[in-house]
Amino acid sequence: TGETVLCDRYFYSCLANLRARGFKHDKWIYEISKEIIRPDAAFFFDIPVETAVERVRSRESEKDRYIDMDLQYKLKDEYELICK
Questions:
Q1: Closest CA to 5 of 42, 33, 45
Q2: How far is CA 34 from CA 21, 27, 30, 45, 60, in A?
Q3: Is 69 within 8 Å of 53 (Cβ atoms)?
Q4: Given this model, what pLDDT does residue 61 score?
Q5: Buried (b) or exposed (e) across 50-78, using 16+ Cβ within 10 A?
Q6: Pick from 84, 61, 82: nearest CA to 10
Q7: In this model, does residue 1 exceed pLDDT 70?
Q8: Per-residue model confidence as pLDDT tens digits over 11-58
Q9: CB 84 within 8 Å of CB 68
Q10: Rounded to two decimals, what is the model's pTM?
């Protein structure tokens, strides 16, 4: 309605996260997603998983945080599939 909204996570990050966690064939995800407004533009910044994790861990509050590396690689794969 004439407003501009910028966000770093939205529909595609939700979809990639669910698919990476094993919900690829669950129809409810796609049924729900029909009601979500699609963005006019989406950008995917493709960086190595290791670089992303290094950036997270460079923050003092995140330096000891557990990060599931297998999940991170699955997420990257799902984002790439969504972009195609």
A1: 42
A2: 20, 11, 6, 25, 39
A3: yes
A4: 94
A5: eeeeeeeeeeeeeeeeeeeeeebebbbeb
A6: 82
A7: no
A8: 888 899 999 999 988 898 888 888 888 888 888 899 999 999 999 999
A9: no
A10: 0.80
- Say which residue the tokens 């984002």 belong to: 79
**3-state DSSP assignment of residue 52:** helix
User: How long, in residues, is the chain?
Assistant: 84
- State how far Cα 48 lies from the chain centre: 14
Place of tokens 């599939």: 81
How many other CB atoms are there within 10 angstroms of residue 79's CB atom? 19
The position carrying tokens 């407003």 is 3
Task: Supply 53's token pair.
Answer: 């994790």
Cβ atoms of 22 and 74 closer than 8 Å: no
* pLDDT, position 8: 75
Query: Nearest Cα to 21, choosing from 70, 81, 64?
Result: 70
Closest to 79 (Cα-Cα) out of 25, 8, 19: 19
